[in-house]
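Researcher: Quick test of sequence recovery. Tokens follow.
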């Protein structure tokens, strides 16, 4: 497949010039989609891509860098370039342990847990407002790191008032037990509903350190508050996900599922005939 440097533009309109590395970027995505390449499939070499796109090796390397940071490919020095593993599908509004919020994962998948810290302190203004307490009331702060196959995936921070959570079992938290399972069993605090906000952002130093990211990577940062059925807030939390390792899925509880969660490749259409170029999604 030979990459095209331009596609037809409507009469009287000029087409913005596409940078050479962008041609390669689109070419690789087209190779993956049109070839129905599965995760782990090997892609053409740098020189082969340069020939296919009719660009320099420098442009190909720039495109591969961008694709790697976008989580589309993985590169192994001296071995080659491969289609990246399928992303995990997360339903962050779904109650329960971390694994229970993931869709389409095999039963043998297992996260390991590192308890980074557990301490008692005073809440920030935002935490106090979210939990409906004064800034002088002490709170727990629990920070945990979740990893899969030794790769850090999710960084968690939970803040809970001591008036509602008088004690915590450090050993159970270290073992990876669900925090909400512990709270329900010990104090009768059951998560009935949550309020959440989601933001894609550059990682903080704390997130870079624990998730193994660099400044060019992104995180999906979810902040939320958990409530009991009678509207009592008991947990103000933040979850930081490696952005390119996850797909986030939200569905209404009273509506039919019309779209299954997942990467699903690019959102595009192909013309019925002629030499038109598929519309990128």
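Model:
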């Amino acid at each position: 497949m030979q990459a095209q440097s331009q596609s037809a533009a409507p009469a009287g309109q000029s087409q913005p010039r596409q940078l050479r590395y962008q041609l390669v970027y689109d070419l690789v995505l087209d190779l993956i989609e049109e070839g129905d390449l599965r995760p782990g499939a090997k892609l053409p070499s740098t020189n082969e891509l340069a020939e296919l796109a009719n660009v320099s090796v420098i442009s190909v390397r720039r495109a591969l860098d961008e694709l790697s940071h976008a989580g589309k490919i993985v590169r192994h020095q001296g071995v080659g370039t491969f289609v990246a593993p399928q992303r995990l599908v997360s339903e962050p509004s779904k109650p329960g342990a971390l694994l229970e919020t993931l869709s389409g994962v095999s039963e043998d998948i297992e996260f390991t847990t590192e308890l980074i810290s557990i301490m008692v302190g005073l809440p920030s203004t935002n935490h106090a407002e979210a939990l409906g307490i004064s800034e002088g009331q002490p709170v727990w702060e629990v920070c945990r790191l979740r990893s899969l196959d030794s790769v850090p995936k999710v960084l968690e921070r939970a803040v809970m008032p001591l008036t509602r959570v008088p004690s915590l079992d450090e050993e159970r938290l270290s073992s990876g037990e669900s925090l909400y399972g512990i709270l329900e069993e010990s104090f009768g605090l059951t998560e009935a509903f949550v309020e959440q906000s989601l933001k894609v952002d550059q990682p903080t130093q704390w997130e870079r350190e624990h998730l193994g990211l660099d400044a060019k990577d992104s995180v999906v940062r979810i902040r939320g508050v958990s409530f009991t059925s009678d509207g009592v807030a008991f947990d103000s939390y933040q979850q930081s996900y490696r952005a390119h390792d996850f797909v986030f899925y939200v569905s209404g509880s009273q509506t039919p599922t019309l779209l299954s969660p997942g990467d699903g490749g690019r959102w595009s259409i192909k013309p019925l005939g002629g030499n038109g170029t598929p519309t990128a999604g």
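Confidence is low (pLDDT under 50) at residues 4-8, 277-281.
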